[in-house]
Amino acid sequence: MIVITAPTGNIGRRLLSLLVDAAPAHGEELRVVVRDPARLPAAVRGRVEVVTGSHGDPATVERAFTGADAVFWLVPPDASVTPEAGFSGFTRPAARAFAALGVGHVVGVSALGRGTPLAARAGLVTASLAMDDLIAGSGVAYRALANPSFYENLLEEADSIRAEGVFTDTLAADRPVPLVAVADIAATAAGLLLDRSWSGVGSVPVLGPQDLSPDDLARIMTEELGRPVRYRRQPLGELRSDLLGYGLDGAFVEALVEMKRAKDEGLDSGVERSPLAGPATGFAQWCAQTLKPAVLAAPEATDVH
Fold it and tell me: Per-residue pLDDT for 158 more than 50?
């Protein structure tokens, strides 16, 4: 039995699709934990067991993890609480359930940076790595998917790219960093969940085929979209003010700014690329398949969920 948390999110819905197709051949049953079962694709509802509730709730995870051999763990982002509460606090009931119910293997979504000096002051990344330590301490075999920023973050810039030919971030324009498509994260997770011959605790970097700077992204987007695209670097102070203006929790905002600063100082750099479950998705390919349709769509059709 494989349990999938957050099955309607960007990574989880892709993982669910992969496992629904592959699990029968491996003799695996699937169970999902979801707040709103109506958000599950109609095609999969009859093929998975559904536990309704939050996977941060002790009673829900006890129901969900009873009889489970493996769990896919993803903490949903919550800008209304502190990073410690959002990551480790949310995960503590699950970590206790892993140990009490004899779950053997857990695959979790985490971040790059472990073992670097910057990891101790990287805000949201620091909190994510502490969550990994909590899960590892439960005694399960654990693989943390160590991810950089996602290509899909650029979907939030689709309106600006369409209207002004501009996308915004806080990195230095010429700093190359790894990036990844969420489909590659899902494929890596599926491989680990279906072939549980691994043991112990470790991290699995999930990276695109090459490091790219914001200037590189602008050049590739210009080529793939057939329109000029340029990069605007946003000062960290401006980002902080904008986020606080939206009413987000102050500790969360500071942790996000710290993460952005650490990434600009090289938090994600120098990671050795390991083979993925399939070919790593190139940025040009992702632009053509995903970003271009979003940019060309009507403005109201580009919301990211």
Answer: yes
All domains in the chain, ordered by first residue: 2-150+180-208+269-280 (3.40.50.720)
What's this model's pTM, rounded to 2 decimal places? Answer: 0.93
Lowest average pLDDT, out of 72-76, 221-225, 276-280, 281-285, goes to 276-280
Q: Name the least confident of 76-85, 202-211, 267-276, 279-288.
A: 267-276
Distance CA 120, CA 130 (A): 10
pLDDT tens per residue across span 253-266: 999 999 999 999 99
pLDDT of residue 281: 94
